[in-house]
C-alpha cells in the first residue's frame, strides 16, 4: 500500500505517528525542538530514528554500564562492528544482530535478511566475512506452527549463507514454550582484516560526495525499525510489508565491490555504512552525526525499483543489499566504476555540507530540513525504574530429584530437543566453504583458521533463558561463563563479546528489571573473564498480548587459538586415555534440563556461580591444553555430566569405564565451571601436578562401544549406540 503524505497540520490532527511507534509526548518533543510543526517526512524519519531499535531509548542507560575496552580492543560499540587485535598484524571483526520480529512473521525472509544485514556490518569495517553463527530459540516441537518456523528459519539462514559463500560454523538451538509466539533469531558474523585498515561510518569533509551503492530501493521493510520495537498480538495482525526480501547473489557482488574499494581506493574513501534498520535515513544521519557535519541528499537520484515513491518511503525503506559511502570530491567516478562493473547501482545522491543541518530534496522541493541532532542526540532517553518480578519475591524452594533408574533417565534426557543433536538442522548449512573451517558444527565452538598465520579463531553463541527466568543477574553471568568455557575447551583464549539482548516490553517495570539485573551479571562476568563487550544490539518487545519471553541475552564470543596445534576436539580420540572431571558437582537442579523434563517447567532458586573459581579453572584448563597435556575437552552445561559424557563418545564410537560415586541425580546437575578432559597415559603426572585438586579422576576410555558406569546407587552398562539413537533421532522424529 502506497503512503499518502499529509500536511504538517494534518499530521498533528490525524496522528499517523502513533501507528509508527511515536507517542504523543514524543511528537510534542519534536515540535518543541523545531519550534514549528514537523512535516510528514520529518515525523516519519523521527519514528525510525527514535525507535528503540535505533535510539536505544529505554536500554541506553543499561548499556552504558557495559565494560567495553581493554588493551586489545581496537574499536568498540558505536560503529558497525567491534574490532579486536589478534596479533601478527591481524584483527577480528564481529557483531551479532537480532531479526526476531521479521522471522516471526515471514520466517524464511526474516532469517535470511538477518544474515545479510550482519554480513554487511562486517565488510563495512573493511573485513572479509569468514564465518556465520546463529542462536535460535523456538517453542516446543509438538506445535505445528513452531515446526513451520523452525523449518523456514533454518532454510532462510542456509539459503542466504550458502549462496553468498560464507560458512555457518556454529550456533545453538533451544526449545521452550516461552518462545512459541516470539521466536528468537539471532545471527553473528565474524571477519578478519589487517589491523591498520579499519573503516568507519562517517561523512566528513564539506563537499565530499555521498554515494548510494547496491540494490534499488523498494517498498519492502518500510519502517522496519519501528516494527521491531513493538509487541505482537495473537490476532495475527503483524505487518508482512515490514519484512525485507534479500538477494544473496547481489550481496556477494556488493561484498566484493566494497572490499575492493576499501583496499584499492582507501585513500579516497572517507566512510562507509550499511543501510540497515531505518534504511537510508539511519545510515546517512549516523554518518553525518559521527563527523559533526551536515548533509543534503537529492532523493530524485536514489535508485528506485518502484515508481512514485514518497520521501517517507525512500528514506525508511529497508530494502536489502545497500550501502552508503562518503567519498572525496573528485573521486566519485573511480569509486562508482567498481560497483557498476559488478552490475550494481552506484549514484552520487548528495554532499556533506557545512553546519549541522540534514536536508532532503525531491522534485526541487525541500521535504526535510532539521538539525542532525534532532534525529540523534535529541531522541528521548527514558530512565526506567525496575520492579523485582513477583515470581522472584516468592520463597524459592530447591528441586531435589530422585533418580532410581539412571539408564532410563539418561536415555530420556538425550532425546530432549534442547539437549539432542541439531545435526538435522545444521546439515542444511555449508560449514566448509572457503576451506578454513577446522571444527565443524557440533563442537563446543566453531574454529576457523586465520589464513597467512598459524592462528585460529574459536567462535560460539550461548543463551539460557531458563536460568535468567529464575535469577536474571546470576543467569546473565552464567551465560557469559558458559560461552567462555566453550572457547577454552577448543584451546582458545576468550577475547571479547557481542550480544543480542532479547527481552519483553521495557515499559513493564518487571521486564525492565530483568534487563537491568541481567546486565549487572554480564558486566561482572565480562570483567572477571577479560572479555569486553565490543558490539551487539537490543531486541525488546518480544511478547504477545503481554506475555513475554524469558529474559534471554545471547552472548556471542570470539577466542584466539595461538597455534593450530592447540585446537582441541570435544570427543574421545583413542582408547586407553584417562578421563578427568575438572571442577566439583553440587546439588544444582533448579532451571536444569532434568527439572524441565521431570516437571514440565523450571522453578526455584538458581544455583551459584563463583567467578573467581570460573576464571581459575578456565585458565588452568587452557594452560593444560597449551602444554599438550589434554587430548580432548568438553564443557559441561545443559544436561550435566551425563549429557557431556555421552556426547564425547559419539564421534568415534569410543566408550569409557567411569566410576563417579555420587547419587544418580548428580550426574544430571548443571553445576557451572566444569569440564571433562582426557589425558594420554604418559601425561598423567604432569596433568595432575598442574591441575591439583581441581581435577577428579573418573576412569578411562575403551575400545568397547559402551559406557560402563558406576554411581553411588548402581552400576550399568549402556551401549553408546542406544544413547546416540536417542540423541540423533529426537528432532527429526519430532519435526515429522
Give an account of the 3D structure.
The model has no long low-confidence stretch (mean pLDDT 95). With 736 residues, the chain is of the alpha+beta class. The chain is built from 25 helices and 28 strands. The strands form five sheets. A seven-stranded mixed β-sheet has the order 8-10-7-11-9-12-13. Strands 23-25-22-26-24-27-28 form a seven-stranded mixed β-sheet. Strands 1-2-3-6-4-5 form a six-stranded mixed β-sheet. Helix 7 packs parallel to helix 8 (144-164). Helices cover 34% and strands 24% of the residues. Strand 17 (493-502), helix 20 and strand 18 form a beta-alpha-beta unit. Among the domains are: 199-378, Phosphoribosyl-aminoimidazole Synthetase, Chain A, domain 2 (Alpha-Beta Complex), CATH 3.90.650.10; 568-736, Phosphoribosyl-aminoimidazole Synthetase, Chain A, domain 2 (Alpha-Beta Complex), CATH 3.90.650.10. It is globular, with a radius of gyration of 26 Å.
